[in-house]
Amino acid sequence: MLRRPRRNRSTAAIRAMAHETHLSAEHLIFPLFVLDGQGIQSEIKSLPGIYRFSPELLLREIESCMELGLTNFILFPAVADALKDTTATYSYHPDNFYLKVARDIKKRFPECCLISDVAMDPYSSDGHDGLVRDGAIVNDDTLPILAQMSIAQAEAGFDMLGPSDMMDGRVGYMRQALDEAGFTNTGILAYTAKYASAFYGPFRDALDSAPKSGDKKTYQMNPANKREALLEAELDTAEGADMLMVKPALHYLDVIALLKEKSNLPIAAYHVSGECAMLTAACRNGWLDYSRAMPETLLSIRRAGADVILTYFAKDFAKMVRYL
Ligand code: PBG
User: Fold this and answer.
1) What pLDDT was estimated at residue 208?
2) What pLDDT was estimated at residue 264?
3) Per residue in 172-202, pLDDT tens?
4) Are 305 and 230 a contacting pair, CB within 8 Å?
5) 211 CA closest ligand 1 atom index
6) What is the pLDDT of residues 261-315, one digit of tens each?
7) Kind of pairing, strands 187-194 and 72-78?
8) Span 23-34, average pLDDT
9) Coil vs helix vs strand at 118
10) What's 22-244's CATH class?
11) For residues 272 and 289, what is the distance between their CA atoms, to the nearest angstrom?
12) Is the separation of the CB atoms in 246 and 256 below 8 Å?
């Protein structure tokens, strides 16, 4: 036999030279949930090991992540029902605790990359990402709300904004509003191909943000579609997005590979709550070995083409490589 692929697998040193896909903490973004109050750290039942933190404890959590070499965070607010309304006014209210904690984070850790969530659902009494009128999610009247939210977040010091709402034209609308307000350096991480997925369950538990009626199928993408992701990518790119995201990740590796091939922008993949919860459940049952299955999972997302991965396992991974 002339060709024997096993020769390149024969020792650890040779395997290391032939190693194709690299993964380290710098490729990861850690999603964090913040709620108002003091001294609160409450675990998300459907996503064990992940917590909602009150601002002070959140800062401590970020500090411990930074010590592990984890520098990238995306922040989501758990808002009290009493503060929610149909037009998500709390999202840009001057007393908003989410904006306040963002200021504190960037003051204390200016070197971190802090990413926001732009969508109405955490603040909406309807639990939808856009404005609800007569049972329908209206697109164009949602855009000014998202723009107002974006400016408030840029003012608070977020490095990048993450529109997760899937309204048409929102990236361009936000970009223009940000530029006009002088925030030309605030980036946009666009949720480009965000699917109407069953795997967001634990996240909606964390924020208590499930839609009060209906589903999100009129704005999030049909899981059956792949070419449509190219259309979304084309639009977000033309409208000024700095990075494109595919979400979820594991069940959409083909879409990640496609966008990586077709786009010149960095590609992010959101390894969503339900995808993480599945693995956590199997590992906690003793059916899979977390120390091997978790890094293999993240590696598969990188191998498919993701430059960065948003994952609830980011801190565990950073710990694992640090203490290997
Ligand atoms: C909503 C939003 C969702 C997630 C991030 N932003 C859920 C949804 O669309 O209902 C899900 C993330 C996850 O499941 O980890 N704007």
Assistant:
1) 87
2) 98
3) 999 999 999 999 999 999 999 999 999 999 9
4) no
5) 10
6) 999 999 999 999 999 999 999 999 999 999 999 999 999 999 999 999 999 999 9
7) unpaired
8) 97
9) strand
10) alpha beta
11) 20
12) yes
**Whole-angstrom distance, CA of residue 310 vs CA of residue 203:** 13
Q: How far apart are CA 280 and CA 107, in angstroms?
A: 34
For atom 6 of ligand 1, the residue with the nearest CA is: 164
* 256 within 8 A of 249, measured Cβ to Cβ: yes
Q: Which residues are catalytic?
A: 194, 247
Q: Which residues line ligand 1 at a C-beta cut-off of 6 Å?
A: 117, 119, 121, 129, 164, 200, 203-204, 216, 272-273
Q: What is the mean pLDDT of residues 46-59?
A: 97
Nearest C-alpha neighbor of 99 from the set 13, 34, 53: 34
In angstroms, what is the span from residue 203 Cα to ligand 1's centroid? 6
For every residue of 120-147, DSSP letters joined together read SGGGBTT--SSEEETTEEESTTTHHHHH
| pLDDT of amino acid 4 | 98
Q: Which atom of ligand 1 is nearest to the CA of 199?
A: 14
Q: Ligand 1: distance of its center to the CA of 204 in Å?
A: 7
Query: Phi-psi bin for 127: left (phi > 0), alpha (psi -120 to 50), beta?
Result: left
